[in-house]
Amino acid sequence: MKKFKKFSLLTLLILSLAGLFACAGAWYWTERPVAMDGERIDYLVEAGNGPADIARVMNEAGIHIHTRGFSLLARLSGQDKQLKAGAYEARRGDTPVTLLQRMANGDMTQSRLTFVEGWTYKRIRQALRDSPDVRQTLDGISDAALLKRLGSNASSPEGLFYPDTYVFTPGTTDFDILRRAYHAGQDLLARAWSEREPGLPLASPYDALVLASIVEKETGNKADRTKVAGVFINRLRSGMPLQTDPTVIYGLGSDYSGRLRKKDLAADTPWNTYTRSGLPPTPIASPGRASLLAVLHPDSHGYYYFVARGDGTSEFSTNLAAHNRAVSKFILGRN
C-alpha cells in the first residue's frame, strides 16, 4: 500500500512537472520571435480566414509560424473571432503574440496613391494599373458600365475623379479607389456650386467642372488663376469662342504630335474651341479645388485675352491689338 502511494505521488509529481514544462515551453514559444525570410514581409488576410488559414498564408509568405500553435493561441486568448481582414506587415522580431494582437487590433499596412491635378482619366487609370497594391477589377469594363456602377449620369468619366492622395490598404480594388475619388469630387462640386457668384454664364455644376478643367490646364500660377477664369467667363458672356489650346490638344488625342500646328487648330473635333463656340462637351482633365473655386469666383475685369510670359505667369489684354503685341513679345521674341 505504501509502495502504491509512493508510486502515485511520484507519478503526480512527474505529471505536474511535465505540465509545468509544457506551460513554460508554450509561453516561451508565444514570446519567441518568429523566424522570417526577410526583415519585413507583407501578407494579406482575406475576409472569412480563420487562424489556421492565416497561419498558412503567413508561412507561404515566408513567416514561419506553427499553424496549430497559432490557432490554439488565438482560441485560448479569445482573439480568434477578432481577427480583421486586410493587409499586414510582419517585422523581424515579431512574436506570435505580437502578430496575433496586430491582426486583432486591425493594425494594417497602408499604401498611398496620388491623382495629380490636371491628370486625364486615362492617366488616372494608368496610375491604378501601375500600383502593385491595387487589385485590378476594371480591365475590360466599359466607361459606360463604370459610370453606371458609380451612379453617374455623365457621358464620360473625364474630370469626375477628384485629384488627391488616397490612403488605402493593399488589396483594395481599383473601383473602390475610383469610387472614393468620384464621391470626393461630387461633394466638392456640390458645395462649391451652392456658394458660387451670382450671374455666371454656367448652366450647371457640370459646366463649372468643364471650365475648371480648362483653367487647370491653362495655368498653374496661383495669382493668375482667378484672372484666367475671368477671361473665359467674359468670353462666354459675349459669345466669343474660348479659343484655348488645351481643348484642341485633348480633342486630337493620340494624333497630337507634341506641338500645335495651324492645321491642328482648324481640325474640328467636339473639343476644338477654335472651331466651336461655348464649352466643350466634357472636361479635359481633373481640376483641383483651386481651379474649381476660381471658375465659380472669377475676377471681374475687362480682359478677353492672355498669353504666357514664359515664366509661369500670363500677360492679359483687353483687345486683340494689345494681345497681338503681347504674343509678338512673349511668344515670337520681338520687342
From TrEMBL:
Taxonomic lineage: Bacteria, Pseudomonadati, Pseudomonadota, Betaproteobacteria, Burkholderiales
Signal sequence region: 1-24
EC main group: lyase
Catalytic activity from the UniProt record: a peptidoglycan chain = a peptidoglycan chain with N-acetyl-1,6-anhydromuramyl-[peptide] at the reducing end + a peptidoglycan chain with N-acetylglucosamine at the non-reducing end
Keyword Cell wall biogenesis/degradation: yes
Record-annotated site: Important for catalytic activity: E218
Protein name: Endolytic murein transglycosylase
NCBIfam families: endolytic transglycosylase MltG
EC number, UniProt record: 4.2.2.29
Molecular function GO labels: lytic endotransglycosylase activity
Superkingdom of this protein's organism: Bacteria
UniProt entry tagged with the keyword Cell membrane: yes
Summary of the function given for this chain in its UniProt record: Functions as a peptidoglycan terminase that cleaves nascent peptidoglycan strands endolytically to terminate their elongation.
Biological process (GO), any one: peptidoglycan biosynthetic process
Family (UniProt): Belongs to the transglycosylase MltG family.
GO cellular component, one term: plasma membrane
Keywords: Cell inner membrane, Cell membrane, Cell wall biogenesis/degradation, Lyase, Membrane, Signal, Transmembrane, Transmembrane helix
Organism listed in the record: Allopusillimonas soli
Family matches, as Pfam families: YceG (PF02618)
